[in-house]
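EI: anyone free to look at a 560-residue chain?
SC: sure, send it
EI:
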Amino acid sequence: MNQEAKAPAHFIRHIIRDDLEAGRHSAVMTRFPPEPNGFLHIGHAKSICLNFGMAEEFAGQCNLRFDDTNPEKEEQLYIDAIQDDVRWLGFKWHGDIRYASNYFQAIHDAAVELIQKGLAYVDHQDAEQIRLNRGTLKEPGKASPYRDRTVTENLALFAQMRNGDFAEGECILRAKIDMASPNINLRDPILYRIRKVTHHQTGNTWCIYPMYDFAHALSDAIEGITHSICTLEFEDHRPLYDWCVENVSCASRPHQYEFARLNLSYALTSKRKLKQLVDEGHVNSWDDPRMPTIAGLRRRGYTPAAIRNFCELIGVTKADSLVDISMLEFTIRDDLDKNAARRMCVLHPLKVVIENYPDGQIEKLNLPNHPKDESFGSRTVPMTREIYIDQEDFAEIPPKKWKRLNTGGEVRLRGGYVIQCNQVIKDAQDNIIELRCSYDADTLGKNPEGRKVNGVIHWVSADYCVDAEVRIYDRLFTEALPDANRDDGKTFLDFINPASLTVLQNCKAEMSLRDCEAEEVFQFEREGYFCTDRHDHNETATVFNLTVGLRDSWAKEQEK
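SC: here you go
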């Protein structure tokens, strides 16, 4: 298959193009409206790429707006992280950052307008009464005993709510729509509730806050959004969205379009459940490299190009589906194969003494930084009498078809000489601690005459290497659908992979890896792709995270 990302003509692209050609809109205005109650995950990346991408493609504009209507769960930490994620993915929002709280006065005034039109009322039922009277999919709801209050009464009561005269939960403002509607979202939904908490943007100015559906629709209208793009779970909310903008005085009439959210195997795309993983200590942080957050993927070594490619590759549809995580791994592997320099790092060091190599000699071998791209240049790797190879590259009694080093066998060092193992040194517990080898001085850059060596292994000089910590990451869950509905009472927490993180200490890496910057990505030859940890890698600590292995299982499946 063609591994380059394409731009499939999905239905939203068609809608926008048709709207522009028909003159329904002269310019495109989209928005990305996250709630600042957690870090963004890979599902949000799809929405970011779609909203910003459509604006960019059609020479329009995209706003970044925080729907900050629930101050109890919102933090500046999340606001800052979301901005970082959008910038890192390569997008630029139009003008200043916007907040739904910028429009609190206008939204309040819209609520007053609805009351004046007899389309909203103050309800003193408690949450349980409202729930019981809401009805079911088969039965209509029951009208609140407060539904027929006069406009004058409702205006006065809403003013008291605004002034803080009522306690939290004592009353709410509801829209007056249709308690018998087949769409439960239209059965007099809540527009405002009382919350006596400090807001991160408005302080203590307000003690009533609009509900998401009300604030979101009016914010879109205030900003002149032409295409309000959201995920399918809001499809049943669209009639309420339309009702809100049609019944208040708005300069614009945005339209909502829904697409299928991203569901990824072996991962969660729920901020609430990701927060639970963080709060309960199942992971180390929101940007733990095991997390499917954008920050976690970044820390693991994923690139913006790979994530954007992935979002294009999976497409935009109206049908819910499950995307195999190996498809995401394919995109980063494809990107890094082209763009990551090669280095050698021995994860499980085994010392090798090349007995016939001159003691004290340092030979500078020249190795390419990328075998397929000469523009990467080359580097010097010192060859000395003592080196390290990986324990897994030696077998005292080799299995069939063994392609590495064994007792009496020969193997080539990457970019260097052919060596032969002559003696195995063990400790008192019978563990192999050292190999004694010899090298063929006539095999640098050429094959030995009259014999064939087993294969090629990576190595580093024992005298010229740097100790490194390497963190090997695996999938966070052992089940493809950790959050599926189950009959056995188990939750996603029961499927956390106990082997999702393995920390290897005292790995031996090329000296050049000591001075690399945070977030640099390399292919460790024969091991996989690794990046320097953006937090823990520094002048005194060399720390690498496994991004993805070398094996491309998803692409192979596509070729079948």
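EI: The longest helix spans residues 42-57.
SC: 👍
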